[in-house]
């Protein structure tokens, strides 16, 4: 049914509804004659209307959206405040100190007594008599609060504004105010000074409590320190007076405000309805403040964008231990803060005075009252957290079908683990360790899931949740996999809390790529040195948020645009202000007053002499870059209601025309010399976000919210092509440097490439998930770069749309991407408030240094062995049944050298301890010793020997080695001969050696019934650790030689401590037998390779599976850590070997470059 | 191609939350919708609109209503998915109970019905979004849509009848 017939039915319905019954029946009959179906439809609708009840579709929150609109209107015009100069009772309002949505704080003068006050006018209106009475009653109490560290409330009253009765507070103005945390930081106070300062705050809060007033909104921005160093608690009880628990954001401090109140709220406050809020809620908030004063960070990692997560964390997470931030906080101080931060109010200090008392005792070195939380309590808290973790993983299941199997398995594991933890409660001491162990397990698995499922934010969150002492190889592997950037630029960049409408962080590169300029929701732009990754200077002077910054084509100037209505030009070398253009401020706005004269963007002409700016006032202005002198005003975009703004303006390459894109749905072409409107480009049905010239200036592409892009002839304004294919609004479009192709980006998970000449679709580049926020061509036009909402930066082939690289690093939307014509990197800005640099040539899988694991491809048969060896630290060696030994570059995966053995499979490979020599054996042929560095054959041992299964080098010069025969017997080969090894005990004939200790003195031996470590010199051997019925298939010494790991044909491995003579850990998890084992050099992790296609990493201390490495397409035959511990190599029957590294891409790339 | 992407402030979120909190507590005490979560999610939806230049307050009201609708519908959908997902998933649905439909209306069915209505009568469907989800008055809706409030009242009556009929016919 189309909208036309829909409209008709609606019209008929209305006519019939208002008609009387007889008339209605008559008309329905008449209609039925014309169209029975239509008449029947209307009868049904009328019947439905008559059975309507008032409850149906009753709005559940009247005025919700409206209230939001009020807030926004307030946020949009803080300076043009209607109350300036107004008299309220005996206060005269002077100026705005700060404005938030719930209220505005003014500086005001009082006549008698004569003083300057802070006057807070609430946006919230009184609804009804009851509310007013409560306000009056409680505001009297506030006036009675009198404490040197409470900002005195002089008066709370209401005044009439139009029909509204508006509450206000007149308060003591805190001179030179800064937040308490800021004060601590700036003055670099010592711990004792901080505690003393805090004691005064606690005493102020206690004073409020004694008078029956709960603060309810204690946070650093409500605890100010004045010029004299006196702390002042402001807004005492204001939260309650104005209704909701989240009080008006307190706004004295301006800078450095904390995002939300949530982080300081007690669990019972976060819970919302139902749970009583009392003095102990303030104790909790004070605890958070003290924590932040001491640790200079918050006790939890609360993710600002995930409501459920934030609330969950406050409810369930244990605070990060103070002592883990600084060992100095160990002991009583940590216990004190922990006590204040207890989830259960009854477990906290019951009063602020009690809290303060323990701090005083601590300062006097007396025993404190609080006790560290009991093990049982901590374990039960853990259990609660853990339950919630399983819930979180289940929620993931609900949204991600792909993730189902893994997460459910993990859930089962977690449930089992939880039962274990509960059972362990009875064993003192064990419970805590168990809890910590399970927390680690939950976090590391959730992090791995985050990587697998492409959720960078979750990956980062869970990695950061793991305490530093619990971080080992698997942590570093996931950490490296989470960051593919070449550099991260963080500084003071970004203040997410200033008032006003915001734009996403942006970045631009200088033409030679040596510098960046960035904007990030603050009043300055920042200029960075790209090569060194450091901030050079800030461009400061704008009076409101800077929204946009760009370099001039000659690289000498930078233009910035701001919400303050000006654009400014700066010297790119030293940051000096060159000119200011305020013409948009002066331009009369044709529309309502709520629209501001924001300058949205600016562009230079090719000569870097003129600038055109696009503004919310729907005009574009042309002015002189050097002196800011106005040249032209381009006025002509239609001023339809609510569409009054210009999104884009730019000069044509020859500087003769200007293109603009407007909210009216038009693009316009103007003469850049006369300002005359040359062509109005009509066709889009919604606002146009960008208008970009082709490099030769003959074409223009426009991107619109109507989901189309259009290509226009600049000469005559004709629409040549409509680029149709996107289904969501376009955020931008641009030509490639040759002008042959056009890139379009829309709010959907793909970008598109088009042929500029024909308008035909060339490629669709899919992000496989996140909607695109920004996109650009690389300077050579061969690749497309796109940044998405999840934080991923994608590189695509511009011709095929094939994904070449998925670059991880940002943990929030990539709002801006920039390349430079002569630059070597791509720069990105993200809502995570970092800038990152990327390698435009990066490839997921090489050639070159791949972003991910290095896959060694080339063998034509299964790879049986792999090890680090060859050029020191740079190469790996593999042996295959295809009869070759190959040497590969460890970083690029390139094959460096190949030794053809003979037409026989290589079954045995051993590398000397120094990595230089390889001993290679085939089932029946001679053994060969190769010098991997010299790439030469050193020795061929042609002496007869039984069919062999493995070789172990004992020494190279003279060459001594162990032959493990296929029949599981063992022989020793040295220059004197090859002889069956038999120990003093004489058991040797049926035993096999699995590994030789690092010092070459001992071997791990098994005879099918038991395993033992014996001295090679005398062969002393006994059946020490029985293994039946299992068959040993792998064994390895640790680097120190004091523990071994044994793997079996069954999916089971174990760790044995030699000194303690104990089998300590049973490792279960593989689905098939174990083929190889390797300890990392630090002996914290054991890697096991299995026929189940996976490598698993085990925690040597606990026996838990720390990480599963998947990627091979067939069973694994070998695994080995590199001597430096930075990588693992695996050999698989899928004919490849792989290198899994914990070095991030930038480190591997740098090493590969220096060693070439 | 750097295109300005306006985003809402976290601070506006705070206030949005406070507002929702106040409204829900006062207007409909005891129901299961958790104001915190609603406001936060609505804010996230609003902030997650790249390139969506918010023209003015009216435009914003429309966006806010749309965001509130999406939040409620998404949660209702997630909940019903969880309910179908067997014992393990049912546990998860308990967590989502804190964000349930505001009243007995089946939000998912309503959302589907609204989509269907929008195909034939887009303006009438938007009236429902503005009034039901956004809690706006007929006058405000009229202002946003650029029609008279009488038209909005008529649209409202029609849409209610249409939706009742549609939901009953399922």
Describe this structure in words.
The complex is a heterodimer of chains A (1156) and B (170). With 1156 residues, chain A is of the alpha+beta class. Among the domains of chain A are: 3-48; 67-363, Transferase(Phosphotransferase) domain 1 (Transferase(Phosphotransferase), domain 1); 375-471, no CATH class. Helix content of chain A is 23%, strand content 33%. Chain A has a 6-stranded antiparallel beta sheet with strand order 1-2-3-4-6-5. In chain A, a hairpin with a 5-residue loop joins strand 48 (908-911) and strand 49. In chain A, helix 7 (191-210) packs antiparallel against helix 14 (352-363), helix 13 (332-340) packs antiparallel against helix 14 and helix 15 (375-399) runs parallel beside helix 17 (430-452). The longest helix of chain A has 25 residues, at 375-399. With 170 residues, chain B is mainly alpha-helical. Chain B has 2 domains: 1-102, no CATH class; 105-170, Orthogonal Bundle (Arc Repressor Mutant, subunit A). In chain B, 73% of the residues lie in helices and 1% in strands. Chain B has helices at 10-27, 35-47, 57-84, 86-96, 107-120, 122-133, 138-145, 149-168; one strand spanning 6-7. The longest helix of chain B is centred in the middle third of the chain and has 28 residues, at 57-84. Chains A and B meet through helix 1, helix 3, helix 4, helix 11 and helix 15 of A and strand 1, helix 1, helix 2, helix 3 and helix 4 of B. Strand 11 of chain A pairs antiparallel with strand 1 of chain B.
């Amino acid at each position: 049914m189309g909208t036309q017939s829909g409209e008709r039915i609606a019209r008929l319905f209305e006519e019939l509804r208002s008609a009387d019954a007889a008339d209605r029946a008559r008309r329905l009959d008449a209609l039925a004659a014309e169209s029975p179906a239509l008449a029947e439809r209307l009868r049904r609708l009328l019947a439905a209307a008559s059975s309507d009840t008032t409850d149906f579709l009753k709005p559940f929150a009247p005025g919700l959206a409206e209230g939001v609109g009020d807030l926004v209107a307030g946020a949009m015009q803080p300076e043009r405040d209607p109350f300036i100069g107004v008299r309220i009772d005996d206060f005269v309002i002077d100026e705005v100190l700060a404005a938030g949505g719930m209220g505005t704080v003014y500086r005001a003068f009082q006549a008698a007594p004569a003083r300057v006050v802070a006057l807070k006018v609430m946006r919230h209106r009184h609804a009804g008599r009851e509310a007013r009475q409560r306000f009056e009653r409680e505001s009297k109490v506030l006036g009675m609060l009198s404490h040197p560290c409470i900002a005195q409330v002089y008066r709370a009253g209401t005044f009439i504004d139009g029909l509204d009765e508006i509450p206000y507070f007149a308060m003591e103005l805190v001179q030179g105010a800064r937040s308490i945390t800021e004060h601590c930081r700036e003055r670099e106070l010592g711990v004792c000074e901080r505690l003393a300062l805090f004691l005064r705050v606690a005493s102020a809060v206690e004073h409020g409590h004694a008078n029956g007033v709960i603060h309810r909104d204690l946070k650093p921005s409500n605890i100010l320190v004045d010029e004299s160093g006196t702390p002042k608690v402001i807004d005492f009880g204001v939260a309650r007076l104005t209704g909701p628990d989240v009080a008006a954001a307190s706004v004295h401090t301006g800078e450095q405000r904390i995002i939300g109140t949530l982080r300081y709220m007690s669990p019972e406050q976060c819970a919302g309805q139902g749970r009583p809020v009392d003095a102990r809620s303030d104790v909790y908030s004070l605890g958070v403040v003290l924590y932040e004063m001491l640790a200079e960070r918050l006790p939890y990692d609360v993710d600002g964008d995930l409501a459920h997560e934030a609330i969950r964390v406050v409810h369930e997470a244990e605070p990060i231990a103070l002592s883990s931030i600084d060992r100095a906080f160990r002991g009583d101080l940590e216990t004190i803060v922990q006590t204040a931060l207890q989830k259960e109010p009854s477990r906290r200090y019951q009063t602020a005075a009690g809290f303060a008392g323990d701090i005083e005792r601590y300062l006097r070195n007396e025993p404190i009252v609080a006790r560290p939380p009991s093990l049982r309590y901590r374990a039960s808290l853990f259990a609660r957290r853990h339950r919630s973790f399983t819930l979180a993983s289940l929620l993931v299941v609900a949204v991600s079908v792909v993730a189902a199997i893994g997460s459910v398995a993990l859930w089962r594991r977690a449930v089992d683990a939880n039962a274990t933890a509960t059972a362990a409660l009875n064993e003192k001491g064990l419970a805590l360790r168990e809890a910590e162990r399970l927390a680690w397990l939950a976090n590391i698995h959730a992090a791995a899931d985050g990587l697998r499922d492409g959720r960078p934010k979750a990956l980062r969150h869970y990695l950061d949740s793991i305490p530093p002492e619990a971080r080992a190889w698997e942590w570093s592997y996931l950490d490296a996999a989470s960051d593919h950037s070449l550099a991260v630029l963080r500084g003071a960049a970004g203040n997410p809390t200033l008032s006003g409408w915001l734009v996403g962080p942006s970045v631009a590169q200088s033409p030679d790529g040596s510098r960046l300029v960035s904007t990030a929701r603050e009043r300055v732009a920042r200029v960075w040195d790209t090569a060194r990754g450091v901030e050079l200077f800030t461009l400061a002077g704008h009076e409101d948020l800077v929204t946009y910054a760009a370099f001039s084509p000659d690289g000498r100037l930078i233009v910035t645009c701001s919400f303050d209505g000006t654009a400014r030009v700066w010297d790119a070398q030293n940051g000096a202000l060159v000119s200011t253009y305020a013409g948009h401020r002066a331009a009369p706005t044709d529309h309502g007053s709520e629209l501001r004269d924001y300058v949205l963007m600016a562009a230079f002409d090719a000569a870097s002499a003129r600038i055109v700016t696009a503004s919310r006032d729907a005009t574009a202005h042309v002015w002189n870059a050097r002196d800011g002198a106005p040249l032209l005003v381009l006025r002509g975009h239609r001023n339809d209601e609510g569409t009054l703004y210009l999104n884009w303006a730019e000069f044509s390459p020859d500087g003769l025309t200007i293109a603009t894109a407007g909210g009216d749905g038009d693009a316009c072409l103007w003469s850049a010399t006369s300002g005359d409107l040359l062509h109005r480009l009509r066709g889009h049905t919604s606002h146009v976000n960008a208008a970009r010239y082709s490099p030769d200036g003959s074409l223009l592409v426009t991107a619109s919210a109507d989901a189309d892009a259009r290509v226009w002839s600049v000469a005559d304004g004709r629409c040549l092509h409509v680029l149709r294919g996107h289904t969501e609004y376009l955020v931008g479009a641009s030509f490639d440097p040759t002008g042959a192709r056009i890139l379009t980006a829309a709010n959907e998970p793909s970008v598109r490439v088009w042929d500029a000449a024909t308008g035909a679709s060339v490629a669709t580049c899919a992000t496989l998930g996140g909607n695109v926020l920004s996109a650009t061509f690389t300077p050579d036009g061969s690749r497309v770069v796109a940044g998405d909402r999840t934080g991923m930066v994608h590189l695509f082939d511009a011709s095929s749309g094939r994904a070449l690289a998925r670059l991880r690093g940002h943990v929030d939307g990539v709002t801006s991407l920039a390349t430079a014509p002569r630059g070597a990197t791509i720069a990105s800005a993200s809502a995570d408030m970092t800038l990152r640099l990327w390698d435009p040539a990066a490839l997921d899988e090489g050639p070159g240094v791949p972003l991910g694991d290095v896959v060694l491809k080339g063998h034509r048969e299964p790879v049986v062995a792999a090890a680090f060896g060859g050029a020191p630290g740079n190469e790996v060696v593999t042996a295959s049944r295809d009869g070759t030994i190959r040497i590969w570059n460890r970083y690029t995966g390139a094959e460096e050298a190949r030794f053809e053995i003979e037409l026989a499979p290589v079954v045995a490979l051993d590398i000397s301890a120094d990595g230089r020599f390889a001993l290679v054996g085939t089932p029946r042929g001679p053994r060969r010793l190769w010098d991997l560095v010299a790439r030469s054959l050193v020795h061929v041992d042609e002496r007869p020997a039984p069919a062999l299964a493995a070789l172990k080098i004992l020494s190279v010069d003279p060459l001594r080695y162990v032959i493990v025969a296929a029949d599981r017997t063992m022989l020793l080969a040295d220059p004197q001969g090859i002889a069956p090894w038999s120990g003093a005990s004489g058991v040797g004939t049926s035993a096999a050696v699995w590994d030789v200790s690092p010092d070459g003195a001992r071997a791990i031996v098994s005879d099918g019934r038991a395993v033992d470590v014996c001295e090679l010199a005398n062969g002393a051997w006994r059946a020490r650790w029985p293994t039946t019925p299992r068959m040993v298939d792998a064994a390895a010494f640790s680097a120190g030689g004091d523990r071994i790991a044994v793997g079996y044909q069954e999916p089971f491995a174990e760790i044995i401590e030699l000194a303690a003579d104990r089998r300590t850990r049973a490792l279960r998890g593989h689905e098939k037998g174990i083929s190889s084992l390797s300890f990392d050099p630090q002996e914290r992790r054991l890697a096991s390779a299995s026929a189940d296609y996976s490598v698993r990493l085990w925690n040597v201390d606990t026996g838990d599976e720390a990480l599963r490495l998947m990627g091979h397409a067939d069973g694994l035959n070998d695994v080995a850590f590199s001597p430096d511990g930075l990588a693992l190599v695996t050999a698989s029957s899928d004919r490849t070997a792989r290198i899994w590294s914990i070095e991030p891409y930038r480190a591997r790339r740098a090493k590969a470059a220096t060693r070439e | 191609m750097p295109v300005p992407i306006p985003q809402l402030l976290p601070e506006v979120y705070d206030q949005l939350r406070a507002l929702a909190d106040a409204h829900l507590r006062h207007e409909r005490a005891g129901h299961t919708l958790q104001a915190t979560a609603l406001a936060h999610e609505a804010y996230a939806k609003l902030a997650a609109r790249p390139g969506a230049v918010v023209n003015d307050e009216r435009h914003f009201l429309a966006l806010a209503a749309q965001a509130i609708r999406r939040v409620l519908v998404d949660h209702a959908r997630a909940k019903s998915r969880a309910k179908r997902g067997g014992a393990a998933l049912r546990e998860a649905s308990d967590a989502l109970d804190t964000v349930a439909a505001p009243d007995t209306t089946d939000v998912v069915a309503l959302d589907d019905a609204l989509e269907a209505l929008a195909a034939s009568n887009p303006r009438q469907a938007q009236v429902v979004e503005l009034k039901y989800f956004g809690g706006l008055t007929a006058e405000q809706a009229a202002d946003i849509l650029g029609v008279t409030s009488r038209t909005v009242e008529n649209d409202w009556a029609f849409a209610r009848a249409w939706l009742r009929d549609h939901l009953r016919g399922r």
